[in-house]
Design a protein that fits this description.
Elements lengths: L1 H21 L2 E3 L2 H13 L2 E3 L2 E5 L4 E9 L4 E7 L2 E7 L1
Antiparallel strand pairs: 1-3, 2-4, 3-4, 4-5, 5-6
Length: 88
C-alpha cells in the first residue's frame, strides 16, 4: 500500500511540473497568427502546425514549419525576427 501511495505522489508531482511549465505558453491570437504567418511566408515557409507565445521568454514558438526546401523546423520568433530555427 505504501508503494502505491509513493507512486501516486510521484505521478501527481510530475503532472504538476508539466502543467506549470506549459502554463507559461498561450495560443497566439488571430492577429498574432496573421503577423507570424507573414513573417514565416517572407522567409520561405509554406505551412506550419501550431503557434504559441512563450510568456517567460517573450517569444513566439512555431511547431513543424515546412520550408520551401522541404525541411521541417521548429521556429522561435521575437520582435518580428526569426531568432532560432531547429530542424525536426
Amino acid at each position: 500500500m505504501q508503494k502505491i501511495m509513493i507512486g501516486l505522489a510521484v505521478a501527481f508531482t510530475a503532472a504538476a511540473i508539466t502543467t506549470s511549465a506549459s502554463a507559461d505558453d498561450r495560443p497566439a491570437t488571430p492577429a498574432e497568427r496573421a503577423e507570424i504567418g507573414s513573417i514565416l511566408r517572407a522567409n520561405g515557409y509554406t505551412s506550419w502546425r501550431r503557434i504559441e507565445f512563450d510568456r517567460d521568454d517573450r517569444k513566439f514558438e512555431v511547431d513543424d514549419a515546412r520550408h520551401a526546401n522541404g525541411g521541417v523546423y521548429d521556429i522561435d520568433i521575437r520582435g518580428g525576427n526569426i531568432i532560432k530555427r531547429e530542424r525536426e
